[in-house]
Amino acid sequence: MDWAGWGVFGLLATMVLTCVMIIAQMAGLTRLDLPLLLGTIVTPDPDRARAAGFFVHLAVGQVFALGYAATFALLGQATWWLGAILGLVHVMIALTVLVPMLAGVNPRMASYRSGPSSTAVLEPPGLLGLNYGIQTPLVAVVAHLIYGAALGVLLVPR
Amino acid sequence: MRTDQPPIEDYGLIGDTRTAALVASDGAIDWLCVPAFDGVPVFARLVGGPRAGTFHLGPAGPALVTNRRYRPESATLDTTWDCPGGTLVLTEAMVAEVGGQLLPTTLLVRRLTARGGPIEVAIDFDPRFGEHHDRPTVRHRSDVVFCRWRHLALSVQASGGLVIEPGRPVTAVVTPEQPLTVAVCFADREPLIHVPPAAAWHALERDERRWQQWCRDITDDLPHHRDAVVRSLLTLRLLTHSPTGAPVAAPTTSLPEQLGGVRNWDYRFAWPRDASIGVAAFLAVGKDNEARRFMAWLLNATRLDRPRLPVLFRLDGRRPRPEREIPGWPGYAHSAPVRVGNGAADQRQLDGYGWVLDAAWLLTRAGWPLHGETWRAMSGFADTIAANWHHTDAGIWEVRGDEAHHVHSKLMAWLALDRALRIARTRPTPARRVRRWSQQRDALAAEIRERGFDPALGSYTRSYGSTDLDAALLVLPLLEIEPPDSPRVHGTIEAVRRVLGAGGPLVYRYTPGNDGLPGTEGAFVACSFWLVQALARTGRRREAEELFDELVAWGGPLGLYAEEIDPVTRAALGNYPQALSHASLVQAALALRDAARAAAP
To answer: Is B133 left (phi over 0), alpha (psi -120 to 50) or beta?
Structure first.
């Protein structure tokens, strides 16, 4: 497996993914803010949470990149389109399983069952993150396609 | 069988902070949407006609309601009837705290208790789904009945083995030894969790104790009508959607502002204005967490539109769907149309910025400094106002097609800049930005004084150049744009009382019918409380207290307020209960408290 490529390009691809998400957020396309959602697990201050969440997201992205590198090694090829297909699978898992699961992990995120004693202030993401704006799934798909395609181009299938 | 619909004020509110039901004094739940306030109606006879679903639980024969009240400092409602052979009590609530337990997200619990002898009761459980009143697919498992529609399911079970068939009224006898408890569990897009009646009742009792604790945490120094204030705060909390923190303006759609009229709007949305007023109300009674949650909701909800502040949001933060009328729904007391969605979402309103920045200032002043992101959002709103205050807007009353230079909107725009400047003094802010806000604030104040005041009337007016009045101007003494004892402030209060007074303590928001729609409307509850607040803030405490006493007496029998009151019949009008009315009651009581403190030696 391309360990060196995984170490370097995994980080690079995750940074690109994060940048795409932040640009989409700044452009008013989505309210999904992954560094904030991850960082508020450790701190309630949004600014500190974003900084902490950025590094958590890098680590999570690195773990996913391992899966990409392993798949490329197993298939014996790494192309942009294969990476993009994996990116599509990745984003589907993220939107349908991982992001909704945050409500159970992040003590500052409310759930649909929250009651009056809840002090959680982050709204739950809802199905496919739609609570964060109707274009959220689209933005997430684009970001992960770029992430996957980048890894497909940069990693070596060995 | 009913011949007439009960008056609006006859309905009690039970809720779980995710959705709420309205129950009439005859024991019929005529309004409930699940799983959220803006969800699918399951019982909608209130505005949807007899086929729209109801859940009646009460005496089988004619009976007189002898007592109806919320249990002290709780959200549990008791209704007592005098029946032949004894007394019957209906106790009901929805379970709010379901987290960490295997309970359904929506759990409705109702119990009938007989006293003095056995009493025959009637049960009519007729849930219907959505706009077309679809009947459910029904399945039985022992004495539990399951109803299913597309993504929604419910289970209903009564104690004592009684089987409740949807759409088939049934009678039973309740004895003093054996109360009849009914549990209804709902599931929307998730597996149904069925809870037997006994367990549901225990959940209700636990929840009641939690509400009592919540009420006990309210500050003690509320000398004036503490019960009314606590009921209003509790109602505000019941109308706050816990999963998102959004304050729903009212749990209903299209309760009419005139019986038989067309002023029927959907209020199952969240207005930033209501959240901001809620911040002030909760902060002042020691409920800081609730206040901060409103600000967190504002921050989440506005992220896509900043630095513009939308007029209203769906509870999940999404944009409202276009307003439309539901065909075939007759409306409350034949007040058609019944609308869903709210066309005001597309309006431009300047006043919202003022409410929001004032709330941010109140939090700052209370020792809750704004996070960096919150301040960036607030600064953006202030920038928007600095650049746009000279435009016309739709105004606080959201009259369709009436863009004008509304004086109230200009005052609130001034408030936005003033409060932004106050917050800026507590944290590093670029000098150029502060200068711009300061210049624009002063220019706006000068324009309001020159173009918004009519010397002949001795009052500020509804809009520039107009001689109409606007009861929203009663917030004037709170803003500090003019000293509270200034002749302009006094003149405005007096002019509003003289021209818009509706008799007694009541005030119309503007001259009735002056909004381009046929018909008229009732007196506006929030404005009536704003009058109390204005008098209290301008040194007329005695008058304010008298009006407040009267207004409390004008409330519904359960202490709930709709948007409006008919000054002749005393009937509640408009969506019910309305968060703005209750927040205004709290603020008026707080103004009286502050006035009393100031007068104390």
So the answer is: left
Q: Among candidates B20, B101, B117, which has minimal Cα distance to B59?
A: B117
Q: What is the ipTM of this complex?
A: 0.79
Three-state DSSP state, B360: helix
User: Residue A97 carries which DSSP code?
Assistant: I
pLDDT confidence tier of residue B33, bands split at 50, 70 and 90: very high
CB contact B287 to A (< 8 Å): no
Name which CATH class applies to B8-209: mainly beta
Query: Which residue type occupies B574?
Result: G
- Helices and strands per DSSP (H, E), number in chain B: 14, 26
Task: Find out whether the peptide bond into B84 is cis, omega within 30 degrees of 0.
Answer: no
* Residue B565 near residue B504 (C-beta atoms within 8 A): no
In percent, how much of chain A has pLDDT > 70?
Answer: 100
Q: Which residues of A126-151 are buried (b: 16+ CB within 10 A; e: fewer)?
A: bebbbbbbebbbebbbbbbbbbbbbb
Please give the C-alpha separations between residue A93 and each of A90, A98, B443, in angstroms, as whole numbers: 5, 6, 55
Cβ contact B385:B353 at 8 Å: yes
Average pLDDT over chain B, rounded to whole? 95
Among candidates B105, B85, B84, which has minimal Cα distance to B94? B105
What is the number of CB-based contacts under 8 A between chain A and chain B?
87
How far apart CA B458 and CA B490 sit, in angstroms, is: 9
**CA angle B386-B387-B393, nearest 5°?**
95
Per-residue pLDDT reduced to its tens digit, B133-148: 999 999 999 999 999 9
CA-based nearest residue in chain B for residue A37: B300
Q: Which residues contact A124 (CB under 8 A, 6 or more apart)?
A: A100, A103, A109, A110, A111, A112, A131, B243, B244
**B372 vs A47: CB contact, 8 Å cut-off?**
yes
State the Cα–Cα distance between residues B171 and B177, nearest whole angstrom. 18
Q: According to the model, what pLDDT value does residue B3 have?
A: 64
Is residue B415 predicted with pLDDT exceeding 70?
yes
In three state form, how does the secondary structure of B106-170 look?
EEEEEEEEEECCCEEEEEEEECCECCCCECCEEEEECCEEEEECCCEEEEEEEHHHCCCCCCCCE
Number of domains comprising chain A: 1
B1 confidence band (pLDDT: 50, 70, 90)? low
Domain-located, residue A71: yes
Domain ranges of chain B: 8-209, 225-595
- Determine the structural domain holding residue A131 and report its residue range: 3-110+120-154
Exposed, middle or buried, B549 (CB in 10 Å: 0-12/13-18/19+)? Answer: middle
pLDDT at B428 over 60: yes
Q: Which residues of A touch B16 (CB under 8 A)?
A: 115
Single pTM value for the model: 0.92
If we measure between CA atoms, which residue out of B40, B21, B26, B37 comes closest to residue B109? B21
Q: How far apart are CA A92 and CA B366, in angstroms?
A: 44
Could you report the per-residue pLDDT of A45-62, keeping only the tens digit for each? 888 899 999 999 999 999
CB-CB contact of B317 with B300 (8 Å) = yes
Residues of A in contact with B243 (CB under 8 A): 110-114, 123-124
User: Residue A115 falls within a domain, yes or no?
Assistant: no
Q: What is the CATH number of domain B225-595?
A: 1.50.10.10
Please compute the mean of the pLDDT values over residues B174-196 and round it to a whole number: 95
Name the residue of chain B whose CA is nearest to A30's CA. B304
